[in-house]
Specification:
This protein is mainly beta and 679 residues long. The protein folds into 4 domains: 104 residues, Sandwich (Immunoglobulin-like), CATH 2.60.40; 127 residues, Immunoglobulin-like; 108 residues, Sandwich (Immunoglobulin-like), CATH 2.60.40; 238 residues, no CATH class. Helices cover 3% and strands 37% of the residues. It contains 3 helices and 48 strands. The relative contact order is 0.09. InterPro entries: Mfa-like_1_N. This is Fimbrillin family protein.
């Protein structure tokens, strides 16, 4: 029998005796969080579920339903057909503290009562266990709030549930929802950083890993929550419209209820302006996060000196691209000599604090792309051994010419955490005489005179001018030959996989849904899986010739003060470069100032679509068959699902064709241009 299911919810949420708990006190005892109201649901005229934290009226915490609110309903009663049915709020209930919800075409039990399992808010992805009265859902790790002080986003991330029975001709069910999540109100103020915009706040139990977000299961029989393996010890809320921190701002986060008593947890606050991002992890003593309660964290007069980690650098001038890094550049540009040229570089972490750890050890993982047996790169004095990083979180890198015929090249150094095994970041050691800077005609671009990784320009007829190869968006190269790297099938659903395998070409054959990209994202193959800002220049236009130059990102492989060239530089070479075939190599010769020439070698590539059987996998002819160069830009906007590549210069000699977009898993050459922002 098909019926319209009517459910009346007197949604009291058990708040009549709830009090607001202070989770973490403010600095120096100033303006501590005060006891007061808990959760109030305020209805808005909105197509989405909205929950807002407001003030109590006496001892009553009213729930006002809003337009578009919806419950989800299951039933196990024999003869029913109710499997995650959406039950919508009726018009007459908008703005009321009890609501009538209706669902069309629901099959009820023909005889006797129908048992209902109800949850809020409705999500199409929510599931009921096969046998028990358990509902599985997800609390988002990344949450969004529209602007400071506005808590209407809370309903999207909360979870409440109830059981009810429908019987008799009136088809009426009354129930009270049990609200399962905790709410954290951050109150942030600062004098020192008042010219920055507050961007996000995270709560992170780094040491004991208490679950705070992710996939959970609610048992409607016992009112208990359990967590699976896919949980995180942190949650983050970001402001979609950040504002200057000129006055105190409130930002709201939904978490699992958790007992953080006696634990030290991090409050991670991120701010930004037009030039840099500031992230400050503050270590504080935690307390209990109660379900269905507002737990307040007050951070008064936020300062850079509040940073609790000596190994973490709070200020980053490069575009973070949603990620993290170590050190202020991914490439050390250095001369070498037979006696050695030493440089000291920082290895402090920066960016997404939830993804980094203390750097403790360092080691040379590649001495030279042209011959790894030549011990050219020393870390803290050793070319072979792992060594502790210095007390100020720096390492000393020395370039030594150990073979007369090899006065430079490209090496690599990795850093490790406490396990001394897993690579947490790596640095390019580009050993070359100081490259010249060429102003390219009237373009405004200033470009280095050689490919990244080589120690020579291309006036000579020498394949060593080719440099090294990069898969688009990765901060480190995969190397010129198979003898100094490996090929492995990609599993990069996040950036970490590529970081932990810095010498590996991540190939895509026999891997589903890659769309020729080493980075898989959610692994659906959709354009939304792509990450267009890896090298700082996501393309919002409908053409490969991105009109923007972007900004240098933390994943850019060029030395400090330089970044991967704009698509406009590649276009200049295509339009005005002259193809010259030499006896051993071929180049594009470009007259950059009316008299002098820059040379772009046809260095070939490595195909990311095929890992090869012998590890070599050099695409085309490495010396004269094709010019393959990356720009810093994706190929076109997210509106174009067909072209998911990156903008390239790809000239094939055999048929004289130009291709402007290539699969991101292919490993091409890179040229660096002057970064006008000097990042």
């Amino acid at each position: 029998m098909k019926n319209r299911l009517f459910a009346i919810g007197a949604m009291i949420l058990m708040m009549t005796s709830c009090t607001q708990d202070e989770l973490i006190s403010s600095d120096n005892g100033k303006e501590p969080a005060t006891a007061g109201s808990c959760l109030t649901l305020v209805g808005l005229s909105s197509p989405q579920t909205r929950v807002s934290i407001g003030d109590k009226t006496g001892d009553v915490y009213p729930v006002l339903w809003s337009e578009g609110d919806a419950l989800g309903v299951f039933s196990r009663t024999a003869g029913t057909d109710i499997n995650n049915v959406q039950s919508l709020l009726s018009d007459e209930s908008i703005g009321q503290n009890s609501g009538v919800f209706t669902s069309d075409d629901v099959k009820m039990a023909e005889e006797g009562a129908t048992e209902l399992l109800i949850y809020y808010p409705y999500r199409a992805s929510t599931e009921l266990a096969e046998n028990d009265n358990k509902i599985t859902s997800t609390l988002s790790v990344e949450q969004e709030q529209s602007r400071p002080g506005d808590s209407h986003h809370i309903g999207k991330y909360g979870f409440a549930f109830a059981k009810a029975t429908v019987s008799g001709p009136d088809m009426l069910a009354k129930f009270t929802l049990n609200h399962a999540m905790a709410y954290v109100k951050f109150s942030i103020s600062s004098q020192e950083l008042s010219t920055y915009k507050l961007k996000s706040v995270s709560l992170y139990d780094k040491e004991t890993k208490t679950p705070l977000s992710g996939v959970f299961t609610a048992d409607l029989d016992t009112d208990e929550l359990t967590y699976g393996t896919d949980v995180k010890p942190y949650a983050t809320v970001s402001l979609t419209t950040p504002e200057l921190l000129a006055s105190a701002q409130d930002i709201y986060l939904t978490t699992y209820p958790a007992d953080l008593s006696g634990k030290e947890v991090y409050i991670v606050i991120t701010l930004e302006n037009d030039r840099q991002t500031v992230t400050i992890p503050i270590l504080k003593e935690g307390k209990q996060l109660k379900a269905n309660a507002v737990n307040t964290i007050a951070v008064n007069n936020l300062k850079l000196s509040d940073n609790s980690c000596e190994w973490y650098e709070p200020v980053e001038t490069r575009l973070l691209a949603g990620g993290w890094a170590y050190g202020e550049s991914n490439c050390l540009l250095t001369n070498i000599s037979t006696s050695g040229v030493s440089n000291t570089i920082s290895v402090k972490a920066r960016g997404n604090f939830m993804e980094v750890e203390e750097p403790k050890y360092a080691k040379t993982i590649l001495n030279c792309d042209l011959g790894n047996a030549n011990k050219m790169v020393r870390v803290n004095g050793s070319a072979t051994d792992i060594s502790p990083v210095n007390g100020d979180y720096t390492i000393t890198v020395t370039g030594i010419q150990t073979y007369a015929g090899l006065p430079g090249g490209c090496g690599q150094v990795a850093i490790y955490g406490a396990d001394q095994t897993t690579v947490i970041w790596s640095f390019i050691i580009w050993m070359t005489p100081t490259p010249a800077e060429h102003p390219y005609g009237n373009t405004g671009y200033v470009v280095l005179d050689r490919n990244l990784g080589t120690y020579m320009t291309c006036e000579g007829d020498n394949w060593k001018q080719n440099g090294v190869y990069f898969q688009w968006g990765r901060p480190t190269p995969v190397g010129w030959s198979g003898t100094v790297g490996t090929n492995i099938p990609t599993e990069a659903t996040n950036v970490r996989f590529s970081i932990e395998n810095p010498r590996s070409l991540l190939y895509t054959n026999n891997v589903d849904n890659t769309k020729s990209d080493w980075y898989l994202g959610a692994w659906t193959g959709a354009r939304t899986d792509r990450k267009d800002d890896f090298w700082g220049n996501p393309n919002e236009s409908s053409t490969y010739l991105n009109p923007s130059d972007g900004h240098k990102s933390i994943y850019d492989p060029c030395p400090k003060g330089y970044r991967v060239v704009s698509p406009r530089v590649l276009d200049e070479i295509e339009q005005k470069g002259e193809f010259v075939k030499q006896s051993a190599t071929a180049v594009f010769r470009y007259c950059y100032d009316g008299t002098n020439y820059a040379y772009w070698p046809l260095a070939g590539c490595k195909w990311g679509s095929n890992g090869g059987n012998n590890g070599n996998n050099t695409g085309l002819d490495a010396s004269k068959s094709a010019a393959c160069y990356w720009s810093n830009s994706s190929a076109s906007s997210y509106g174009n699902d067909k072209d998911q590549g990156a903008t390239s210069l790809y000239y094939k000699v055999s048929d004289k064709t130009w291709t402007h977009s290539s699969g991101r898993s292919h490993a091409f050459s890179v040229r660096c241009m002057k970064d006008t922002e000097n990042r």
